[in-house]
Design a protein that fits this description.
Layout lengths: L1 H25 L2 H4 L5 H9 L8 H20 L28 H32 L4 H7 L1 H25 L6 H18 L1 H6 L5 H18 L3 H6 L5 H4 L10 H10 L12 H14 L1
Helix pairs in contact: 1-3, 1-4, 1-7, 4-5, 4-7, 5-6, 5-7, 5-8, 7-8, 8-10
Length: about 290
């Protein structure tokens, strides 16, 4: 379980870093300023990817575990809850869109498709490793030869683990907030499936039209969540002092706060910077030599 925590924490920090960078660019020049608080938040979050070991090392640890589980599944041995999907038969065609009007079944279909992609990547990596060993390579050399595929399988598995954890938390949430959280879960799963479309298309699990449908549902989810977006962010209840951002203030007085921040900046303590008198003297001396 500790390995899952480290792996998911590392992946979440990386995704959070990308999200912060997108927010910074969306704020234009103000996002680049320290007044936004985003540069400091980015520096703190992105460092989390390597606090307890560089992500590639943890990906390899996860891949080794997955290869062992794949062998156990092939022998019919019991597996832990996090990898029990390896025991299930590979899903046929993608069922997304076939149960429209039934959001619970739609979510199950999305999770099934993520499981399908993860199962295939793990199986392909394991098969390639076994093939190299059978051709006479040492297990270590064979492993190094399929490291890229192993890492890819570990990354997709981690995303599946997060999706399952998200789903379990939503279905066990209080009924008053479950509809909004279900919308969030739907958005997350549609995004993940669209982002991994190449894996779903690879073996004919889905068609191009189905990927278009997933994108359409993704945009519909964004429209549904928009009215609740501010409330969802405020639900974290992060105080202004901790956020330390003129752009994310609770009262929304962004430009007034930005002006106050600029006035209190060390660069604006005086109308003319003290160093200018030295520059002025140098300019006058050089002008006299012309």
């Amino acid at each position: 379980m500790e390995m899952y925590k480290k792996m998911t924490d590392g992946l979440n920090k990386g995704e959070a870093g990308l999200g912060i960078e997108q927010c910074r660019m969306a704020c234009g020049g103000h996002g680049y300023s320290e007044a936004s608080g985003l540069p400091k938040v980015y520096g703190g979050v992105i460092a989390g990817c390597t606090y307890e070991g560089e992500n590639m090392v943890m990906l390899q640890q996860t891949a080794r575990y997955l290869m062992k589980c794949a062998k156990r599944a092939s022998r019919g041995e019991p597996l832990s809850f996090s990898v029990e999907f390896l025991e299930r038969k590979t899903a046929g065609r993608l069922r997304v869109g076939m149960d429209e009007g039934n959001p619970e079944q739609e979510i199950e279909n999305l999770l099934s498709s993520l499981e399908h992609a993860t199962r295939r990547l793990i199986s392909d990596a394991s098969s390639e490793w076994d093939k190299r060993v059978s051709m006479g390579e040492s297990r270590e050399r064979a492993w190094n030869g399929v490291t890229v595929e192993m890492n890819r399988a570990a990354r997709v598995y981690t995303r599946l683990f997060i999706a399952h954890s998200f789903h379990r938390r939503v279905i066990s949430s209080p009924s008053a907030i479950r509809p909004v959280l279900t919308d969030l879960l739907s958005l997350y799963l549609h995004y993940e499936c669209v982002d991994m479309a190449h894996h779903l298309l690879h073996d004919g699990h889905c068609t191009g039209d189905q990927i278009k449908y997933l994108k359409k549902r993704l945009y519909e989810d964004l429209v549904k969540i928009r009215p609740n977006a501010v409330s969802l962010v405020d639900s974290f209840d992060i105080p202004d002092r901790q956020l330390n951002s003129v752009l994310g203030r609770r009262d929304g007085n962004v430009y007034e706060a930005l002006f106050e921040w600029a006035k209190n900046s060390e660069l604006n303590y005086t109308d003319v910077l003290p160093a200018f008198r030295h520059i002025k003297q140098m300019m006058e001396e050089n002008r006299a030599k012309i």
